[in-house]
Amino acid sequence: xxxxxxxxxxxxxxxxxxxxxxxxxxxxxxxxxxxxxxxxxxxxxxxxxxxxxxxxxxxxxxxxxxxxxxxxxxxxxxxxxxxxxxxxxxxxxxxxxxxxxxxxxxxxxxxxxxxxxxxxxxxxxxxxxxxxxxxxxxxxxxxxxxxxxxx
Length: 151
Description:
The chain has about 150 residues and is of the alpha+beta class. It has helices spanning about 15-25, 60-75, 115-125, 135-150, and strands at about 1-5, 30, 35, 45-55, 90, 100, 105. The strands form two sheets. Strands 1, 2, 3, 4 and 5 form a five-stranded antiparallel β-sheet that branches.
């Protein structure tokens, strides 16, 4: 699960919003430190980011519904894509492998392109393997950073 915030909310700063979201999730068995990253898209505010592992028997569609409810409770409203937001909760991976249904793809479609997801994922789940590529977070992160250096 990836968590991000770049706008103050009812819990305070973006870092406080991330911490409150982690507490609201329940079942957290591991969490990365909160880090800061530049925004993707039009937003100008930096993001506070973290990745957590959750132990749950809930299938991805039900988990997504739960995450959307938490986002609404935190004051998130649908708006401009990649705009400022109080909280963003994304299912990055699932222990059951890959999942695809209307409106949901697991692993997350773009997680392998995001240093702010891969670095904390590597910190808390270094041996997990992407079911699409078979690569670990370390390998995906090295590949991403090499592309950035060359690009």
